[in-house]
Amino acid sequence: MENFELIAFLKALLLMQVAVQLHAISKAKKELRPIPVSNAIFYCQQKSLKTLANGFQEDFHTGLRNDTPCSSWPCKNKGKCLPLYGENNYKCLCKGFKGKNCENGRENRYKNDPKAFLFSLKNPTTNPRKLPQLDSSSSHSVYDGANYGLTLGGHDLYIADSANMNSNSYESLGHTYTVPSGVRSDPFLTGNTRLRANEIETFYETAE
Q1: Phi, psi (deg, nearest 5) at residue 117
Q2: How many C-beta atoms surround the C-beta of residue 106 within 10 A?
Q3: Which SUPFAM superfamilies does the record cross-reference, listed alphabetically (predicted)?
Q4: Which residue among 53, 137, 154, 203 is least packed, with the fewest CB closer than 10 Å?
């Protein structure tokens, strides 16, 4: 009887030890997640649970490393580096720049876009209208600038920074885009030249 109780006690003790160690692994998984720092480099990479489970007494910190696909700081112009460990590669999250390493900046100039148009869904005339360009070959379809607010046409429509908090945005139709009345600078969109934008939605076309 005593042997049976001793065996049962030892089994219970073993199960308790395993439970404590599994809890430690779970806690380590939660606390030792990769932490992004400057340039979004992930200095820590946790070992898999399978590796940890094969040696409960292993120091968790030995499972960390500082060589990642982002270690060379590949992203330029304040781009954030996202390591792709499975592919031993990385992806740069660019803001205002393009290219694999965010190396290509905006050109800060007007460009032609023959497909660009404005659409007024709600306006003082309660007349939803598509406003095409006066000339699809216009060199002022859209302004391409990373440090400048949305600008369409020769300032036919300009959305300023913090547009929902000020009235620095404005409309001046008729320079590049059609104005229904035919009168340049007629405030067809809002009824006022200056405006405050409560919500902005941007749509773009992608080619397959």
Answers
A1: -155, 165
A2: 14
A3: EGF/Laminin
A4: 203
CB 123 within 8 A of CB 189: yes
Task: Provide the CB-side half-sphere exposure for 29 (13 A, CA).
Answer: 12
Question: Per the structure block, which two tokens stand in for 36?
Answer: 């992004």
What pLDDT was estimated at residue 68? 83
Contact indicator for 88, 101 with CB cutoff of 8 Å: no
Angle at 130 between CA 133 and CA 123, to 5 degrees: 120
Instruction: Give me the pLDDT at residue 19, please.
Output: 56
Q: Which residue type is seen at 61?
A: H
Tens of pLDDT, residue by residue over 13-34, are 566 665 555 555 554 444 444 4
What's the Cα-to-Cα distance from 131 to each of 2, 150, 174, 176, rounded to whole Å?
A: 92, 17, 10, 10
**Cα four-point dihedral sign 187, 193, 195, 201:** positive
E strands present in the chain: 80-84, 89-93, 97-98, 104-105, 109-111, 118-120, 129-131, 142-144, 151-152, 157-158, 169-171, 194-195
Q: Is 81 helix (H, G, I), strand (E, B) or coil?
A: strand
Residue numbers of the chain with a pLDDT score lower than 70: 1-66, 106-107, 146, 202-208
Return all residues near 114 (Cβ < 8 A) that are at least 6 apart. 133, 136, 137, 141
Do 189 and 179 touch, CB atoms closer than 8 A? no
Does the pTM exceed 0.70?
A: no
Q: How many CB atoms lie within 10 A of CB 97?
A: 18
